[in-house]
């Protein structure tokens, strides 16, 4: 396989990992107003992702760095054209990260509620805008002969893009609530299971509409891998329904696992629908960025391939070890005892 094509799928793998891992982070953050009935409950929810949220976010940094090195033309067009959307995502992530670190610095209820609001907003904005951005990349955007984006932020807010954003918002929210149910006990756990049942139904409806639209677009565009796109969309739909059924039966691990599989299959559906383009042009198909005309030299890709072969397994092993260390449920009683000890 040509190295450019290999790196197209490696970048796809990195974004899959990011959406799966930071996806449930976003969902946990968005669930605070619905599940956190008191400060102990909100701390219980936040502590489920406390040891891993920053590690999860590194995936998007690595994905962006690989995109820059492997596909500089794609990176330049994407980050210049989607500048405002990506800036909003960045600001939201900064606000969310600051909130995790500073929320516990004072006992003031007003102080904590302010940072809780920042966590919710800082989780919802990226969850929405990532979907809008990826949907527009797949659908195509106005690009001129110089491979420059000629639209604006409003160009991205088209029906398909907004449906993509709503899909990721609901998908990440449900995925995060599954994680809360998996990692907590007591009232928060039971409330999370009930909330996931309601949110899951809305997610199934919206995600089904988005997947059908994506398959229709792939068929209309004559995508070379349309058969794979249809198969992956079907897998995503089956996994999403399976996650909802597993939650209804109280099998939280399976619900979360099927939720993760849904995101994997959904992102791969979009990735294969995009192939062999990396950024189609709606101005003129001849102006589209493809894997071949947007990639770096073979020498650069060769060096990157050796680096990925050496370091990627180490990173994956370290992340797996981190999740294993923090695999136990976050107990409400333990937080209450810690709060009582701090009060004295």
TrEMBL record:
Bilayer disposition of the protein: Multi-pass membrane protein
GO biological process, one term: aerobic electron transport chain
Pfam families (UniProt xref): Cyt_bd_oxida_II
Name of the protein: Cytochrome d ubiquinol oxidase subunit II
A GO cellular component annotation in the UniProt record: plasma membrane
Taxonomic lineage of the native organism: Bacteria, Bacillati, Actinomycetota, Actinomycetes, Micrococcales
Record key words, sorted: Cell membrane, Electron transport, Heme, Iron, Membrane, Metal-binding, Oxidoreductase, Transmembrane, Transmembrane helix, Transport
Top-tier EC class: oxidoreductase
Signal peptide as annotated in the record: none
Subcellular location(s) of the protein: Cell membrane
InterPro entries xref list: Cyt-d_oxidase_su2
């Amino acid at each position: 396989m040509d190295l450019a094509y290999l790196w197209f799928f490696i970048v796809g793998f990195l974004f899959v990992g990011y959406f799966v891992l930071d996806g449930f982070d976003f969902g946990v953050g968005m669930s605070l107003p619905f599940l956190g009935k008191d400060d102990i409950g909100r701390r219980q929810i936040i502590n489920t992702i406390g040891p891993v949220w920053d590690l999860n976010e590194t995936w998007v940094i690595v994905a962006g760095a690989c995109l820059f090195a492997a596909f500089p033309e794609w990176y330049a067009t994407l980050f210049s054209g989607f500048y405002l959307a990506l800036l909003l995502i960045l600001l939201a992530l900064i606000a969310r990260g600051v909130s995790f670190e500073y929320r516990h610095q004072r006992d003031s209820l007003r102080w904590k509620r302010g940072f809780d609001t920042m966590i919710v907003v800082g989780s919802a904005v990226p969850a929405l805008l990532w979907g809008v951005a990826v949907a527009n990349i797949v659908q195509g955007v106005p690009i001129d002969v110089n491979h420059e984006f000629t639209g604006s932020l409003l160009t991205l807010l088209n029906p398909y893009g907004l449906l993509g954003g709503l899909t990721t918002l609901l998908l990440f929210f449900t995925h995060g609530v599954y994680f809360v149910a998996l990692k907590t006990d007591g009232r928060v756990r039971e409330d999370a299971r009930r909330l996931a049942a309601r949110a899951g139904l809305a997610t199934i409806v919206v995600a089904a509409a988005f997947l059908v639209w994506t398959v229709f677009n792939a068929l209309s565009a004559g995508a070379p891998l349309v058969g794979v796109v249809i198969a992956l969309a079907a897998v995503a739909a089956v996994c999403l329904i399976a996650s909802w059924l597993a939650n209804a039966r109280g099998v939280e691990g399976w619900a979360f696992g099927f939720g993760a599989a849904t995101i994997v299959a959904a992102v791969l559906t979009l990735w294969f629908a995009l192939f062999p383009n990396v950024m189609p042009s709606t101005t003129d198909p001849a102006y589209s960025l493809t894997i071949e005309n947007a990639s770096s030299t073979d020498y650069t890709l060769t060096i990157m391939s050796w680096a990925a072969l050496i370091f990627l397994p180490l990173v994956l092993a370290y992340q797996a070890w981190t999740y294993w260390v923090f695999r136990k449920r976050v107990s409400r009683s333990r937080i209450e005892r810690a709060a009582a000890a701090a009060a004295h």
